[in-house]
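Progress note, sequence design subtask.
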């Protein structure tokens, strides 16, 4: 009877540990998804800003001679798009490993 009770307690402890790991994994996955979405939104705003600056620079440079034009915008839309693609690739790799 003692061995049966210790066996049942052992199984119960294992079940609790498995459930705790499952719950922690779900929280971790949700946290990673939230972080990815925040980073994606941040990069999306940076892309909008870069596109607006490039458009303004392009419109301005139509009317100003080349030697009087200011430098091109520091933040280029290609760089931001590359960052977004890298973030998406990284996130996709994480989700594929988790499945």
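Output:
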């Amino acid at each position: 009877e003692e061995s049966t009770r210790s066996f049942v307690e052992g199984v119960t402890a294992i079940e609790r540990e498995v459930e705790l790991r499952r719950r922690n994994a779900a929280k971790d996955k949700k946290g990673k998804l939230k972080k990815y979405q925040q980073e994606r939104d941040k990069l999306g705003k940076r892309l909008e800003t870069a596109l607006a600056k490039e458009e303004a620079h392009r419109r301005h440079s139509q009317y100003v001679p080349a030697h009087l034009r200011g430098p091109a915008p520091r933040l280029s839309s290609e760089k931001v798009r590359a960052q977004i693609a890298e973030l998406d690739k990284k996130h996709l790799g994480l989700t594929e490993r988790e499945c």
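The mean pLDDT is 85. Work on this subtask will continue into the next period as scheduled.
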